[in-house]
Amino acid sequence: MGVVEMKHVHEAAAYDKWFRAEIEAAIVEADDPKTKWVPNEDANNSWAIKRAELLERIGNTHSKFKTSDYDIVVDMTISV
Fold first, then answer.
1. Which residue, among 79, 52, 74, 75, has the nearest Cα to 65 in the 3D structure?
2. One domain for residues 45 and 79
3. So which domain of life are we looking at (predicted)?
């Protein structure tokens, strides 16, 4: 095995170690009862708003997506 191949083997091993650590940390966080969960609908709405704002900033000319392609629902309910 040459130098280049060994470099790739070491990079792959380092990535595998990093990836497994990331997965383990995610599992620990998911199992933590203090973890705050965000409903999928809320996350989708939040990102739709961000996408719409960014598309508006660039004038929507550089993207195949249009602001109207996204359903944006904003809940303005105030809980007391």
1. 52
2. yes
3. Bacteria
Total number of domains in the chain: 2
3-state secondary structure the chain: CCHHHHHHHHHHHHHHHHHHHHHHHHHHHHHCCCCCCCCHHHHHHHHHHHHHHHHHHCCCCCCCCCHHHCCCCCCCCCCC
Cα gap 37→59, rounded to integer Å: 34
Q: Which domain holds residue 55?
A: 38-80
pLDDT in tens, the chain (80 residues): 788 888 999 999 999 999 999 999 999 999 999 999 999 999 999 999 999 999 888 886 555 555 555 555 555 455 54
Same structural domain, 42 and 80: yes
Q: Which of 79, 77, 73, 69 has its CA nearest to residue 41?
A: 73
